[in-house]
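Figure 3 (text version): structure tokens given as input.
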């Protein structure tokens, strides 16, 4: 370990380079104190698993009870038709906002840290929307820039997408996005990003001509992802009534979900895990690249592309295997195809945990740049929101108190995400398995998987990185 750290330090001194902050790179190196956080985090998860095993099934299931907020009916305030009009209007405004950002991407500053498109896509939308979806509900349904156009012009589909195959398109779309974000040489270049965003927007408009508005939830990868996340939200509306519950309470009565959702979620989780693993000395050892001779993304395009795809495939296989083995030894007759989809939902809290932990430091810095750009979006020296001489600071990385707080948030996100995943997986199985013993048997392989993945997440945060 000392030799690797020394190697990293020497390479940093000998090969200095100008670095632009970006969501897919670690803006700063904040290594977790491994000797404390990894054992503590895994201990908490093991304790959660033991509690889930030793307590009655009804106790875990009761955690996911949800409650109706009495005397609150959203549709008593506005009609169904007016509610739909609001969604269309907000979607159209979102479309105009996106087109304005694309225009600024082409015409604005070439500096990624001064261009509104780059900062909004990578530092606001990609980072914040998943957190919003899982806490306050499906806000994306109102902000989706395709929805309003689809409802006005493409409301009648010519071809219907089979629910069992709906996640094929979303999986392919998110994989391409991941390759662009993690492998492409300059994903934060404003010109390139504006072109990619525009082409992706037009492509989905074209597909809505054939598949109608339902293409968004069944084929557009971000709508599919955000819709899944909204299933875990703390609050939600159903038939105009407000409900409140623990993460995943909406799934309490679900007994089926499309089988290929596990492929989609495996790609998402693999992306968030690989974005971190691909910067470790272990990965450079695997791909046989000397860290002292690493000249940037262009030198490892093939290796990182194959690595991401391989990681996603392996995660897909391992998760399917854990669910299959867990149910194979129960005495109940289970059709694997019918239960794999709903079990894959347990991966969502882990994905969000990795999202928060990995991108926290980048967000703390880049959101300041976005705030600065809000005051001068055209880079003309304006001060629209009267921020004055605002300077981006990283001073909170220079004191041990704030650094410890960041460490704590990162480690807590990983551990809490896995704890929720364990409880959710237990509750999901309790929903369709008839006996407590069957639930316990089904959870053994997935529990081992959760422990191993917790270790991986904390290790990625704690290990030195290259370049």
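Below: residues designed for each position.
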């Amino acid at each position: 370990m000392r030799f690797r750290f020394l190697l990293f330090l020497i390479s940093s001194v000998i090969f200095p380079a100008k670095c632009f902050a970006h969501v897919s790179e670690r803006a700063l190196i904040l290594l977790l104190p491994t000797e404390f956080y990894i054992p503590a985090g895994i201990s908490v998860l093991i304790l959660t698993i033991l509690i889930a095993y030793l307590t009655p099934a009804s106790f875990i299931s009761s955690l996911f009870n949800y409650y109706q907020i009495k005397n609150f009916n959203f549709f008593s305030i506005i009609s169904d038709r007016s509610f739909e009009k609001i969604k269309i209007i907000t979607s159209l405004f979102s479309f105009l906002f996106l087109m304005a950002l694309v225009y600024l991407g082409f015409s604005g500053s070439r500096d990624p840290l001064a261009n509104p498109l780059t900062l909004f896509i990578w530092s606001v939308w990609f980072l914040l929307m998943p957190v919003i979806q899982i806490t306050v509900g499906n806000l994306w349904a109102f902000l989706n820039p395709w929805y309003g156009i689809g409802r006005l012009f493409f409301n009648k589909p010519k071809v219907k997408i089979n629910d069992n195959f709906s996640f094929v398109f979303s999986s392919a779309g998110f994989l391409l996005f991941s390759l662009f974000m993690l492998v492409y040489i300059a994903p934060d270049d404003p010109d390139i990003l504006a072109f990619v965003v525009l082409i992706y927007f037009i492509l989905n408009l074209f597909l809505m001509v054939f598949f109608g508005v339902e293409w968004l939830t069944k084929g557009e990868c971000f709508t599919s992802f955000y819709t899944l996340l909204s299933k875990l939200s703390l609050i939600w509306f159903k038939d105009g009534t407000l409900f409140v519950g623990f993460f995943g309470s909406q799934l309490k009565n679900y007994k089926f979900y499309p089988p290929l959702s596990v492929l989609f979620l495996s790609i998402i989780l693999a992306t968030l895990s690989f974005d971190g693993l691909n910067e470790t000395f272990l990965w450079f050892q695997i791909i046989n690249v000397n860290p002292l001779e690493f000249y940037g993304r262009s030198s490892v395009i093939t290796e990182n592309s194959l690595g991401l795809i391989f990681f996603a495939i392996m995660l897909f296989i391992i998760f399917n295997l854990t669910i299959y083995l867990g149910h194979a030894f129960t005495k109940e007759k289970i059709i694997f195809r019918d239960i794999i989809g709903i079990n894959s939902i347990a991966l969502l809290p882990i994905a969000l945990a990795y999202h928060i932990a990995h991108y926290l430091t980048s967000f703390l810095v880049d959101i300041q740049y976005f705030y600065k750009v809000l005051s001068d979006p055209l880079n003309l020296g304006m001060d629209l929101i009267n921020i004055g001489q605002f300077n981006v600071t990283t001073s909170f990385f220079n004191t041990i108190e704030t650094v410890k707080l960041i460490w704590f948030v990162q480690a807590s996100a990983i551990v809490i995400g896995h704890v929720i995943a364990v409880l959710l997986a237990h509750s999901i199985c309790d929903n369709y398995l008839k006996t407590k013993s069957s639930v316990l048997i089904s959870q053994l392989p997935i529990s081992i998987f959760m422990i191993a993945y917790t270790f991986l997440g904390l290790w990625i945060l704690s290990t030195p990185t290259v370049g």
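The first helix runs from residue 2 to 14.
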